[in-house]
Amino acid sequence: MNAPLSSIPVLRERGQREVFCGLTGIVWLHRKVQDAFFLVVGSRTCAHLIQSAAGVMIFAEPRFATAIIDERDLAGLADANDELDRVVTQLLARRPDIRLLFLVGSCPSEVIKLDLSRAAERLNKQMWPQTRVLNYSGSGIETTFTQGEDACLAAWIPVLSESPGDAAAELMVVGSLPDIVEDQLRRQFAAMGIPKVVFFPPRRSTETVHVGSNTRFLLAQPFLSETARLLEARGAQRIPALFPFGAEGTAAWLAAAGKSFGIDESVCIEASAAAMSRAQRALAPFKEELQGKKVFFFPDSQLEIPLARFLSRELGMVLTEVGTPYLHKTHLAEELAVLPPDVQLSEGQDVERQIDRCRASQPDLVVCGLGLANPFESEGMATKWSIELVFSPVHGFEQAADLAELFARPLRRRQRLKI
User: Fold this and answer.
1) pLDDT for 36-79, tens place per residue?
2) 10 Å Cβ neighbour count for 106?
3) CB 296 within 8 A of CB 364
C-alpha cells in the first residue's frame, strides 16, 4: 500500500538555477554498460566536460566520444546528417565490439534542430543486428544532470523484450548501480527467496531484459520518473519503498520487495539481520560525530530527499532546508512520510533567494553543486559536492558508513582549518 502523500508544505521556486547538464550521466553509464558507446553530438565544450568529468586515463579507450559540431555545421555549410553517418561508420569499423550505440543530443545539436531520433532510426536499420542505435537528449537547457540517466533508460525501454504472458512474476531493479553494489543486493534478494532478479541497465546490452504485466520493479534511484512511467505503460508494477540509502532505507527497500512477492516479513528480517547489524555498528561513530549538526540542501541531483531522511533519522542531523530540482510526490511518498514535519522543502530554484536563506540559517554543512561550493567555503561554510554523492557507491548496507563518511569529511576538514 502506498504511503499517504505528505502534508509538509513545499516552497516552489522558478528562477535562476545552478545545475550540470544531462551529459554528465555518461560518466557512470559508460562504466556500467560494458558493450555500449555514447556518442555526444555537441560542441568542444561538451567534449571537455565529459573528458574532464570522467577522468579517463590517456591510455584507456573509453566508451564515449563527441562528434564535434563546428562553425560549418552551425552555418549550414555542411550536411550534419552526412557527417554523422560518416563518424558512426568509422567508429563502428574501429570498435566492432560496440553492441549498443547511443546518439546523445546536446544543447548545440538541439539549437541547430538536428533530428537525432530520425538519425538513430536510419543508422539502426544499417547497423542492426550487429549494433543497435538509440537516441536520447543530454541537453541541460531544461533539465538537471541526473535526468541524463532517466532519458537514456527511457530510450531503451521500447526495445526491451515483452514478457511471455504466462511467465512468473519477476523483480526488476531500475537504476544504474556499481557492480559491487549490484552483487551485494543479488545476494540479499537470494537470501530472502527471490533468486530471479534483473537489473536495468544490465552490465551488457545483449542480456535479455523482459518487461510486461508480470514485472515488478524497484527504483534504486529517485530521479527515474520517465523511466518508471514507460515501464508502467508496458504493464510493469512499481513497488513503493524507501530508497536503499543507509541501514533503515535498505532494509525497508528489501522488505518492500519481499512483501510484493508474498515473502513473510520475518524471513526478510532474518535474511538482512547480519548486514543490518554491521551497517548500524559502522554508523554509530558517525552519529556521535554528526548528531545535532545542521545541514542545508541546494537542489541539484534529486537525491536530496532520501539523503535528508538518512541524515535525519540515522545520524541525527537537523534539516534546515531540503531543496530538490523536481519533487515526484508519488515516488517519494514513503520518504516524505518519515521526514520531520517541520522541515522546509523546496522544489526548483531561485538561487539568489536560496543563498540568502542558507546564510540566514547558518548551517554546519551545505550540500550543493560545484558552482556554489567554493564561494560558500570562502565564507567559512563546510560544503559537500552533491555530484560526488551520485558518482560514489552509496546504496545498500555495506555502503552505509561510506555514505555517512562523505558528509562527515567536510566537517572534519573545516575543523582542522580552524585549528
Assistant:
1) 999 999 888 888 888 776 665 445 567 888 888 765 555 554 57
2) 28
3) no
Pairing of strands 237-238, 215-219: parallel
Query: Nine-digit cell at 366?
Result: 551545505
Cα 157–chain centre separation? 17
Global confidence as pTM: 0.93
Q: What's the pLDDT tens digit per position in 215-261?
A: 999 999 999 999 999 999 999 999 999 999 999 999 999 999 999 99
Fold topology of 22-143: Rossmann fold (3.40.50)
Q: Does the domain formed by 10-16+282-418 have CATH 3.40.50.1980?
A: yes
Which is it for strands 318-324 and 345-349: parallel, antiparallel or unpaired? parallel
What are the start and end residues of each CATH 3.40.50.1980 domain in the chain? Answer: 10-16+282-418, 22-143, 161-270
Cβ atoms within 10 A of the Cβ of 48, count? Answer: 11
Q: Can you name the CATH fold of 161-270?
A: Rossmann fold (3.40.50)
